[in-house]
Design brief:
Layout (H helix, E strand, L loop, with lengths): L4 H9 L6 E9 L5 H21 L4 E3 L3 E4 L3 H18 L3 E6 L14 E4 L10 H28 L1
Parallel strand pairs: 1-2, 1-3, 1-4, 4-5
Helix pairs in contact: 2-4
Length: 155
Amino acid sequence: MKWIPADIERFEKSPEYVDTAVVPLLPVSFVEGMKEAAAMTEFTSLLTSQLERQLQGRILLVPGYSYLKNMRLDAVEQLKAWETELLDKQFKHVIYVTSDFDWKQQESELKGTLLWLPSLPLQHMDEKAKQSVLEDQIRQLMNLFIQKWRDAESE
C-alpha cells in the first residue's frame, strides 16, 4: 500500500493484514556528492515503489525520509521518532531501504531492519535493462521480507 488516500482508506479498514512499514531513506546533498545522492535517491525510490507493487496488502510504503547527507546524525534521532510512532501504532516490522552505506554505521541504533543495496547506475541504462535490474533486486528483497516474516511467526 502506498501513502495515498485510497490505499490508506483500505489500510484503515483492515490494518491487521499490513504489519510492515517500509521507509525509503533518501539522501540529499547540495555540495559534494550531489549526483551520487541523486542516483541513490532515484534507485531507492524506484526499488521501493516496485517492492510495494509486489507486496501490496502486506506492507505500507511510507513517504521517503529525505535527509541532508552531511547531517545524517541529526536524521538518526528524527528517524528514531518515526520508528517509535510506527511500532506504537501497530506495525510489527519497520524496514528501512537505502543505498547510502553510511547508514550501516547507525544500524545498531535502530529497532527496525536496515536493508542496504548499492545504487546501480540506472541513468545509463535503457528502460528494458533498467526494468530487468530492478526485477532482480526486487526478487532478492522479497526473499528477505518473506524470511523476516517467517522468523517472526516462529518466535
